[in-house]
Design a protein that fits this description.
By secondary structure, the chain is α+β, with helices and mostly antiparallel strands. Helices cover 27% and strands 24% of the residues. It has 2 domains: 13-340, Beta-lactamase (3-Layer(aba) Sandwich), CATH 3.40.710; 355-466, Calycin beta-barrel core domain (Lipocalin, Beta Barrel).
Length: 467
């Protein structure tokens, strides 16, 4: 569900932006990026352009990844306003039940401010602990037990575990989960409904990741930040906190290389190379706030490298944000409207059927792999058993077909007489899998690849035989 009271809409020209510039941005993104999932441009408080790449849609929540951190930062600001803590409170005094037996002197000096600025003193992201994930229980204890290699406050190291400690601190102080604390103070006044947040086994919201909201929900948050916490005549978040939380707080150049990640870090926000700041999540999920231009740009994406998406925003949209309203341009407005209406993630192109289709229809192919044990093609449905779980996935012919079993859509085509390519998309997140099946006499050669991953992307290649 989208926000109950959506943001007001306007035309680009009414807000000083040529429609052609937005069309140029979309065209460049479609040509060079694989791919954006959604886009929303706000100017002077109005949505002037919005679009979703099918099968993504306005009503679908999206995994926000580290955009979640900016919501956690806002909760810290609210808790400070409520008198529950200060920036200079020590973590050892706030999480006493989860400390190691003999806390180090560096750990004793760790403060809330250090967690907010990713300068906790850890040498690695403690959300992974260098081994691929936190244990099933005791996330907070595991993070606090990780040695601090540096003096807190002296070195920036991106650390989602630090944000989880903030979520744990807020949970201890408020007696409720982070999402519940934010709901009456922030989410409900903004009109954000049905937000969800991943939790640790101990029941603490992840804080640094795991928030799921819609594109417009993120736009509402971005506009609130632009308005320095004021909303419909109410000061939801102290303006002074917004100013401090989004200002440059620590140098990031020792550990970052991309242009828009060396511009510095705030309290769970990144600074932009062109000015302003952004809530920033993996694979190109952004609420880009540009106070000097009175604009917000929201993107959700499936990008292994998000810098090119920001580059396109700077190249195409920033120069187009004029100071005065422009005359209406019906032709350019119509072109933009049509461009936004036709957005779609690419699908395999080829024939709808093949002589091989009838030959292999209904045959169960088995694989010597725990990851994928069997596969059957029946018409336009592929059924497979992966890691012990059997699922059926219908796929459209050169078009996306949504599965009745969950938020997944798939499209397929015969790209050669013996080769079927199926692309499936999780349209509440960034992941798309491309499955290539090449059928022999009694065999099938399978190749599976993902578009993005937190791990090294190595295609899965298997040979299956007819059962």
């Amino acid at each position: 569900m989208t926000a109950s009271v959506p943001l007001p809409r306007s035309t680009p020209e009414e807000q000083g932006i040529p429609s052609s510039a937005i069309t140029g941005f979309i065209t460049a993104a479609d040509t060079t990026l694989d791919s954006l999932n959604s886009f929303m441009l706000l100017r002077h408080g109005f949505v002037v352009a919005e679009g979703w790449w099918h099968p993504y849609a306005a009503e679908h929540p999206h995994m926000m990844f580290s955009v979640s951190k900016s919501f956690t930062s806002t909760a810290v600001g609210l808790a400070i306003e409520d008198g529950l803590l200060t920036l200079d409170d020590h973590v050892v005094d706030l999480l006493t039940d989860d400390l190691p037996p003999d806390p180090s002197e560096r750990l004793r000096r760790l403060t809330v401010r250090h967690l907010l600025t990713m300068s906790s003193g850890h040498a690695v992201d403690t959300a992974t602990l260098g081994t691929g994930g936190l244990p099933d229980a005791g996330w907070v204890r595991s993070i606090l037990a990780t040695p601090l290699e540096f003096e807190p406050g002296t070195r920036f190291v991106y650390n989602s575990g630090a944000t989880h400690l903030l979520a744990a601190i807020l949970t201890r102080l408020t007696g409720e989960r982070l999402l519940d604390y934010l709901t009456p103070r922030l989410l409900e006044p903004l009109g954000i409904r049905n937000a969800t947040w991943e939790q640790s086994p101990e029941g603490v919201d992840a804080g640094g990741w795991g928030l799921n909201i819609t594109t417009e929900d993120l736009a509402l948050f971005g506009q609130l930040l632009l308005q320095r916490g004021e909303w419909n005549g109410r000061q939801l978040v102290p303006a002074a906190w917004i100013d401090e939380a989004t200002a440059l707080q620590i140098d990031t150049t020792p550990t970052q290389v991309n242009t828009d990640w060396v511009a510095g870090y705030a309290y769970q926000y990144w600074r932009n190379s062109v000015g302003g700041f952004r809530a920033d999540g993996a694979f190109g999920n952004f609420a880009i706030v540009l106070p000097e231009l009175d604009a917000v740009v929201v993107l959700t994406s499936s990008l292994p490298d998000a810098q090119p998406a920001l580059d396109l925003v700077w190249e195409h949209l920033l120069p187009a944000l004029g100071e005065q309203a422009l005359p209406a341009n019906p032709a350019d407005a119509a072109t933009l409207k049509m461009t936004l209406r036709r957005l779609e993630i690419w699908t395999p192109q080829g024939a709808s059927t093949s002589p091989a289709a009838a030959r292999v229809d209904g045959i169960r192919f088995v694989f010597d792999s725990a990851e994928l044990s069997d596969l059957t093609l029946s018409g336009n449905t592929i059924t497979s058993t992966r890691n012990g779980l059997t699922q059926s996935l219908p796929f459209g012919e050169d078009d996306w077909e949504t599965s009745p079993a969950g938020p997944v859509a798939a499209a397929g085509a015969w790209t050669a007489p013996d080769t079927l390519v199926i692309r499936s998309c999780l349209f509440t997140g960034p992941w798309t899998e491309t499955l290539k099946l090449t059928f022999g006499e009694n065999t099938v050669e399978l190749e599976s690849s993902l578009n993005v991953s937190f791990d090294e992307m190595v295609p899965l290649r298997l040979t299956g035989r007819a059962a």
